[in-house]
Amino acid sequence: MIITILYYLLTAYIAFLIVWNLLKRKKWQEEILYIIILIPFLLRLFRLK
Amino acid sequence: MAINWLYPRKFIVIVLGLVLMVFAGMSFYESRHLKEPVVLSPGVTQVKNLSDYFPDIKGTINDSNIYVLEGAKPGGTILILGGTHPEEPGSRLATWILAENAVADQGRLLVINSANRSATTVTRLGGGYPPDFTIPTEWGGQKFRMGDRWSNPLDQWPDPEVYIHYPSRQELAYVDIRNLNRAFPGRANGTLTEKTCYALIQLIIKEEVDIVIDLHEAELQYPVISTIVAHEKGQDLAAMASMVISGTEGFSIGMEYSPPALHGLSHREIGDHTQAISLLLEAPEPFLDATRGRTGRELLLEGKDEFVVKAGKHGLLFEKMDENGWPVEVRVGRHCSTILQILEIWSEENPEKSVLVKGIPSYAEVIEKGIGDFLHDPAKADPKRIYYE
CA of B153: which chain A residue's CA is closest? Predict the structure, then answer.
């Protein structure tokens, strides 16, 4: 259970880094790439997939 | 003055991403929470749960229903497991037919439609599987969850680098820590999948089950196919069933020995750790083949695929495959007739432990009438006789 909670915290941290990087990008292609990468992390955080 | 589009553009990209996530999330949520009705056969005398045998599993998704069909005369007890691997839907559909139609005259039949219910709530990650499928019926159709081979990561996560099976300490693939058919005999303080196996073992011991039949489907490129895999205790029974079925039912089924050194599987561990004879049935399912084409509902239900046919022409298959494919009725019918023959042979050889059951259709009847003919309309049933998987 503790390991599972740590993995959820890790997922939230990586999701935060992806959003942070998305906001820093200048090219729209990279923004699209970051938002697509972000989706599975959010789906796991919201316990949907 | 030039307009700075950077932040409006980021806003639009984020909104588009969230819309995508919401639509995907809704699909996943609906799939996970789809209610599958079981209209109980008049022969179902009691519905129990796995937590009746192992209380620690109460409140978890894997506290599965156990449909008990008890005859008026005492006899033996036979347990049928469906949904050990829910991505093999022929197994669950066969148990639906049993729970909705079978009536025991002597002995007891215990039926579990979703042995690993967690695995019924997710499809293979990145596999492009359909979330559900519908079996046509006279009253419209019944929708079922597609399911996966492994427990849902939402219920058991993360996986280890290497899965060490308990108690053998055999090293298995990391993902198989969520595979019910690699976690037997389970352990009381283990993962959800191990606890589920432990609960099933307690059920088998406490109910003095004589035979466990675990229903499966397999890809045609896998050598263990169209067969009964038998523990040493069940070899005579399986061999006799194989001969009788191949001679009378209109299809061939082989018989194989359960490898003593391959751990975690039901046919090995249930036989080793309980008094029961353990058998595992495999029917062909082209949907699972690596060389298949589009992984859609048609392939799942009709079992037709030109790429798997081509693999057969190159000698890569362990079962025949032609343009007729392997429709789900054929796969489910094979399971039904094999169960019927095992019950009959067991009862002839063990009169004091007979399990006599009527209402189970044969292979020919399932193909002729379709699976939907044996599924009952929940709208017309007594609500007290409807349970949900």
Answer: A49
The confidence band for B13, taking pLDDT boundaries of 50, 70 and 90, is: very high
B5 — pLDDT class (breaks 50, 70, 90): confident
Interface test with A, best of B4, B21, B121 (most A CBs within 10 A): B21
Rounded CA gap, B10 and B7, in Å? 5
Flag if B25 and A46 touch (Cβ within 8 Å).
yes
The nearest CA of chain A is from the CA of B295 a distance in Å of: 19
B13 found inside a domain: no
User: What is the CATH number for B309?
Assistant: 3.40.630.10
Instruction: Break chain A into its structural domains and give their ranges.
Output: 2-45
| Rounded alpha-carbon distances, angstroms, from residue B94 to B88, B216, B280, B335 | 11, 10, 14, 7
In angstroms and rounded to an integer, the radius of gyration of the C-alpha atoms of chain A is 12
Q: Say whether B13 and A43 touch across the interface (CB within 8 A).
A: no
Interface contact B127, partner A, CB < 8 A = no
For B82-100, what is each residue's pLDDT tens digit? 999 999 999 999 999 999 9
**Number of domains into which chain B is organized:** 1
CB-CB contact of B108 with B68 (8 Å): yes
Q: Report the alpha-carbon angle A3-A8-A12, nearest 5.
A: 145
Name the closest residue on chain B to residue A10, using Cα atoms.
B158
